[in-house]
Amino acid sequence: MVKFSEDKLAKVQELISHYPEGKQKSALLPVLHLAQENLGGWLSAETMDYVASLLSIEPIEVYEVATFYSMYNLQPVGKYMFEVCHTGPCMLRGSDDVITYIYEKLGIKPGETTADGLFTLKTVECLGACGYAPMMQLGKHYREHLTKEKIDAIIQECTMNAAANN
Amino acid sequence: MKLLLEKNHVAGIRGYEVYRREGGYRSVEKAMKMSPAEIVDEVKKSGLRGRGGAGFPTGMKWSFIAKPEGVPRHLVCNADESEPGTFKDRYLMEFLPHLLIEGLIVSSYALGSNVTYIYIRGEYAWIVDILEQAITEANNNGWLGKNILGTGFDCQIYVQRGAGAYICGEETALIESLEGKRGNPRIKPPFPAIKGVWDRPTVVNNVETLAAIVPIINMGGEEYAKIGVGKSTGTKLLSACGNINKPGVYEIDMTISVEEFIYSNEYCGGIANGKKLKACIPGGSSVPILPANLLLKTAKGETRYMNYESLSDGGFATGSMMGSGGFIVLDEDQCVVKHTYTLARFYRHESCGQCSPCREGTGWMEKILKSIDSGKGKMSDINLLWDIQSKIEGNTICPLGDAAAWPVAAAIRHFRDEFEWHVLNPDECLKRNYGLAHYADEIHVPVTA
Description:
The complex is a heterodimer.
Chain A: H1 6-16, H2 28-38, H3 45-55, H4 59-66, E1 80-85, H5 88-92, H6 95-106, E2 119-124, E3 136-138, E4 141-143, H7 148-164
Parallel strand pairs in A: 1-2
Antiparallel strand pairs in A: 1-3, 3-4
Helix pairs in contact in A: 2-3, 3-4
Chain B: H1 16-21, H2 26-31, H3 36-46, H4 58-63, E1 74-79, H5 88-95, H6 97-111, E2 115-120, H7 125-140, E3 156-161, H8 171-178, E4 202-206, H9 207-219, H10 221-225, E5 228-229, E6 232-233, E7 235-242, E8 248-253, H11 258-263, E9 277-281, E10 290-291, H12 292-296, H13 308-311, H14 315-318, E11 326-331, H15 336-350, H16 356-373, H17 379-392, H18 400-424, H19 426-432
Parallel strand pairs in B: 1-2, 1-4, 2-3, 7-11
Antiparallel strand pairs in B: 5-6, 7-8, 9-10, 9-11
């Protein structure tokens, strides 16, 4: 059964306190982020039902929100997700080459995950880094001014981190 | 002239101590000695126009807020910056978080908002930490919390993260999202100023707009209005990107020419790799693209300036818009059809799906543009595209429909020959696009000469 740790449950209560009495549903987006970050990297039906129970709302209210916003993963993803922007301004600065290079290096197309479950490649629409293009989001942070060398270094960094954590 | 970014190169300005030492939070001290109505008056006098893209006068927006007895009011800061080409709010929040917090405190006081929210796009995850740190510092130093500066005014600021939806930059969709729902825009009226978040009177303002309240209070609305030209008062942040030598965020007073902005070393530093300027989208992806000749000069042959009036001179036939200040430059090697395709794909991805013209139309435009771009298009597709965009515009609840239609319309208006070239030269298309445009279907190996 999925369940937040005590400190994460306290965080949920803190988030609910930001809103007026009875408007705890407002905390849904932040609590879903918390769930995705702490309960396996994606939102299973079980996780969404759990979030609904925490906020005293119906499960359908969670499903309809989780399916609307692009940052919520509705299926398992790799440990490291390369979210490469491919909208106009990034395209002008070579985002196509970034995607092709990742494909050459890891053998995954957008939407696919490597067999070892380490990497997922995803294309995303404008992330507000147009002046520092091409770019990708990796976890909480942006990786900008991407070059082949930088992508090599990022892949190596992730591989080493994964090995160190196993 | 710099009002917002004047101190952004001071070491440690992100932290409270340095920010305060450099004159930070003076506007709160000054504002708290004024009445809320006097502050609204100063903002009206300043001529400040909303910096999110629509350019609506901020003081007027503030004066619309309803004040029913016993009903709390809310200020919500729109930090959902998602318009392709736009990254100025991110810059401001990342490097000068206290400037935004200071502006929020003054604005909350003026509007009577005891609980104020910053709704930030979910991808700016690390900026949430920066803002929360600044809020904690402001709290610890008595600028937030109970009875601020002994005035009896209480204020708290909370940051809420979105989760990836361009539409949440539209104020009623943002409000829905803040309530924990899908970002479906509401039908107006009622306007948020009457019924906003939790049906309470609400003002939603852009990050840059709220930061600009600080210099307006410090220097006075009349002085602020002297900067700039005509109805383009004060300074504006521009985020420049694409094929230029110096992409980045620049603050301008709105008197410089477009040519100076592109070629001066103080700003974009000219076109990258010694190429020629082909076209530019001067105000974020939604506004019309202009070919170089119409960008630098108006149809009448006059110099075009970086301000609201001059950029829209000529209407959509020969002009564009200031929009959000997202300045996207295309060099001579870039393909307008392909670029427009990526924008159409963006709008299809971001349409909330409520209104049929937008939900269906954005999908059709993307498919047709993709087909033309990959050499599979017919001549009749160009008129079909024109027909579709014309039926989206004006027929949707929110402006996303217009925003999706305009880039397609302008691309056809000014670059029809390029669309025709794609239809006439199908074999050249994939070479020209080096075969990577459509990896969603399949990945092609780049065609090498």
